[in-house]
């Protein structure tokens, strides 16, 4: 799937806001006003605002009634350091591009959460020295954008690093204390058993630090899953893990549990259709789960014949769909009925294929920004790479620039 220079003051102990409450208003250059109900932050699908052919959030809001977006990902700088960036390359401190996206969403009555971590790049928990400095970096993001919600996407390879996870969980606890009402989700890998060994270690770290977010969410895909039944089975097993780890009863565990799916074709070739999403949504609502989200809105549209070569794409789902079909399940989870009429779509002109870049070589060394062609597509290197085939993984070093 699925990224403040001023020191933080002393943490004031606060009670964790229960799911469904409204966060306090924060000031922001992006025009934050009143926070949404937490159910919207719990339903916010992921959107990459700077990569993977970002869709227009205003158009999605008009077509579906969606009001919240999970922006991804805040990372440490690719060149090193403990300051927040978008994708490792765009410093948050000087950002105007993402801020413009946020302003557009808020002008239409919506809001955003920001997700930190993800699969690729270096995470701030790995780069910063301790929980306090990690929290200070994230506070810079919260303050700049006037955030009411934040998501910690803790997965491999970061969650295999116990020091990094200690920093991330410690930072999440500090942010929760210093920003009363902040909605905090923690997302990690899913397995048929719920989550794996590293996911369980992360939960134990949270217990040791006395940290309870609004929810712990699992991603039941890319692990041998086959449709909704396998996903609801994983959610049931994860509920048992939450009970045994924190001493919760079943209902309390479900109230702190979340689902983060992948729409369409996953990285490993699993398929999750609209019917699968409906089944998991029914499970989540009937068990009073706290969160239902998916990766990603960039993929919530049907592939063109040129794009859909039987492989996973970062810009389309590889299943038959209308645009924003999967976003409508998030709207349902938030408790709002999606619009029943779909605006007449503007015909998309057939693009003229770009000329192909020099052919990719398995022996050549590529650095960020280098462009190659492979499998009739152009690709751009996100970071240093050698002998990593373009398109082998959506989260690999190569960004698909389209057919050529």
Q: What does the largest sheet look like?
A: 10 strands, mixed
Helical run tally: 11
Strand content: 15-25%
Helix content: 25-40%
Structural notes for this entry:
The protein is α/β, with parallel strands linked by helices and 404 residues long. The protein contains 11 helices and 17 strands. It has helices spanning 38-43, 57-64, 97-107, 124-127, 131-145, 162-178, 197-209, 228-246, 250-255, 274-286, 327-334; strands at residues 46-47, 68-75, 85-86, 90-91, 111-117, 149-153, 183-189, 215-219, 257-262, 264-265, 271-272, 291-295, 365-366, 371-374, 377-381, 385-386, 398-403. Strands 1, 2, 3, 4, 5, 6, 7, 8, 9 and 12 form a 10-stranded mixed β-sheet that branches. It has a 3-stranded antiparallel β-sheet with strand order 14-15-17, with no helix packed on it. Strand 14 (371-374) and strand 15 form a beta hairpin. Helix 6 packs across helix 7 and helix 8 (228-246) packs parallel to helix 10. The longest helix has 19 residues, at 228-246. The radius of gyration is 20 Å and the shape is globular. The two termini are 25 Å apart.
């Amino acid at each position: 799937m699925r990224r403040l220079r001023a020191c933080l003051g002393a943490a004031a102990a606060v009670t964790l806001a229960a799911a469904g409450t409204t966060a306090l208003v924060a000031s922001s250059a992006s025009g934050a006003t009143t926070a949404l109900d937490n159910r919207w932050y719990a339903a916010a699908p992921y959107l990459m605002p700077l990569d993977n052919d970002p869709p227009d959030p205003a158009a999605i809001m008009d077509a579906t009634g969606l009001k919240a977006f999970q922006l991804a990902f805040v990372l440490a700088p690719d060149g090193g350091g403990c300051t927040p960036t978008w994708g490792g390359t765009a410093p948050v401190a000087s950002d105007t591009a993402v801020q413009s996206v946020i302003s557009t969403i808020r002008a239409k009555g919506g809001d955003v959460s920001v997700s930190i971590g993800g699969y690729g790049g270096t995470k701030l928990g790995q780069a910063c020295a301790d929980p306090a400095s990690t929290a200070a970096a994230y506070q810079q993001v919260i303050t700049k954008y006037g955030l009411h919600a934040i998501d910690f996407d803790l997965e491999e390879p970061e969650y295999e690093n116990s020091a990094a996870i200690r920093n991330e969980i410690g930072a999440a606890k500090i942010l929760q204390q210093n920003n009363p009402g902040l909605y905090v989700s923690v997302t990690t890998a899913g397995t048929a058993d719920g989550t794996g060994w590293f996911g369980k270690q992360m939960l134990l770290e949270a217990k040791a630090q006395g940290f309870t977010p609004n929810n712990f969410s699992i991603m039941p895909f890319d692990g041998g899953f086959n449709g909704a039944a396998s996903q609801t089975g994983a959610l049931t097993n994860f509920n048992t893990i939450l009970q045994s780890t924190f001493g919760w009863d079943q209902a309390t565990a479900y109230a702190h549990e979340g689902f983060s799916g992948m729409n369409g074709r996953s990285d490993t070739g699993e398929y999750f259709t609209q019917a699968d999403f409906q089944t998991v949504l029914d499970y989540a609502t009937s068990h009073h789960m706290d969160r239902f989200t998916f990766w990603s809105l960039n993929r919530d549209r049907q592939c063109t014949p040129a794009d859909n070569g039987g492989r996973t794409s970062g810009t389309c789902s590889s299943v038959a769909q209308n645009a924003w079909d999967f976003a409508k399940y998030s709207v349902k989870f938030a408790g709002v009925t999606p619009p029943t009429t779909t605006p007449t779509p503007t015909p998309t002109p057939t693009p003229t294929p770009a000329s192909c870049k020099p052919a990719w070589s398995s022996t050549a060394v590529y650095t960020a920004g280098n462009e190659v062609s492979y499998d009739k597509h152009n690709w751009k290197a996100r970071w240093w790479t050698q002998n990593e085939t373009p398109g082998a993984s959506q989260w690999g070093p190569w960004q698909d620039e389209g057919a050529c």
